[in-house]
Design brief:
3-stranded parallel beta sheet; transcription; 326 residues; Rossmann fold; Arc Repressor Mutant, subunit A; Homeodomain-like_sf; 4-stranded mixed beta sheet
Length: 326
């Protein structure tokens, strides 16, 4: 696994670093013996002296990833993603050498930027944290970026979304290498699901899409307050005091969605919140979100988010309990 030396492991990135260290660096002799031999290989420091974060020391360097069976890039410095700074050249060179030598290449979260910079994702489907997939797609147009999945297995190159999706991918690697029984037992020991249904689309906030058209703000707020009621393009246009055609164009320009798509996203967002925060029945949630029936809610959930409403609810502990299903 590639890790920054000295400064560079920010608190946020520490989670992605710890996942492979836990999965592959802790021997499990009763499950498989020998287990993985994990080596942390350093790259140069990033960030100003005194920057918050952790310092790592390891005796392995980038030359040691050449000849490895699997190379994992858990993250890249924040400056690479947020400020467009280049991926360290020595890292790109080492990744190319390792891949040419036959290594399986893996990225977690923003580590996909390093694999993309090395050209290892060209023409391939890949993913990253949904907050960074737009930047990844813009910066590397030859990569087929998919922001709807937890991870992508493209054979010898694998990528994952951020945070806990990295754990999903690491368990998937164990499953590939050592079989389902070992992966399932390891997941039990870590007190996590061996396999989570759906994709990262279930974690994307659909409720408030970006818009720079302030003239639409009051109309969109008005519509969000009435999602449980029938809403038509004509009615929304009347609220905006423009023609339906003009409203259609303005909304699509501001949000990238048609009015019907925007309304569906708002209603799904409302349903997501109700599933997370209440114990209301699926039928009641369908009515309150304006999706009508439980069957219609399930249809759109499966199509847009990739899992059923019940699986989505199980993924989020409820913060409030509301047992009424009236």
């Amino acid at each position: 696994m590639v890790v920054p030396e000295e400064i560079g492991v920010a608190f946020w990135d520490l989670y992605e670093v710890s996942i492979p260290a836990t999965v592959f660096g802790t021997p499990q002799p009763d499950l498989a013996n020998p287990w993985y031999d994990l080596r942390m290989c350093r790259i140069r420091a990033h960030g100003p002296a005194g920057a918050p974060g952790f310092a790592l020391r390891t005796r392995y360097g980038l030359d040691d990833i050449v000849g490895a069976d699997t190379v994992i890039v858990a993250s890249v410095p924040e400056q690479v993603v947020e400020d467009g700074e280049p991926v360290p050249e020595e890292l790109v060179t080492a990744l190319c050498r390792a891949y040419d030598a036959g290594a399986r290449m893996v990225s977690l979260c923003t580590g996909a930027f390093a694999l993309a910079e090395a050209g290892l994702l060209d023409g391939r489907r890949a993913t990253a944290h949904w907050m960074h997939t737009a930047a990844l797609a813009e910066r590397y147009p030859n990569v087929q970026v998919d922001d709807s999945v937890l991870y992508v297995d493209d054979g010898d190159v694998l990528t994952s979304a951020g945070m806990t999706a990295g754990l999903d991918l690491c368990l998937h690697l164990v499953r590939r290498d050592l079989g389902a029984y070992v992966a399932n037992q390891l997941a039990r020991r870590m007190v996590v699901p061996a396999h989570r249904p759906g994709g990262q689309a279930q974690f994307i906030d659909l409720s408030v899409p970006a818009t720079d058209d302030q003239g639409l703000a009051s109309v969109l707020d008005w519509a969000r307050a009435r999602l449980d009621q029938p809403l038509s393009i004509d009615e929304l246009a009347r609220q905006a005091m423009v023609s339906p055609r003009t409203f259609y164009r303005r909304l699509q320009r501001a949000t990238g969605a048609t009015p019907l798509q925007w309304l569906l996203h708002q209603r799904l967002g409302r349903a997501q919140s109700l599933l997370e925060e209440t114990g209301l029945s699926v039928e009641k949630i369908a009515k309150l979100s304006g999706l009508g029936t439980a069957n219609n809610l399930r249809h759109h959930f499966l199509r847009q988010i990739g899992i059923s409403p019940s699986d989505y609810r199980n993924a989020f502990p409820r913060q409030t309990q509301e047992t009424s299903s009236r």
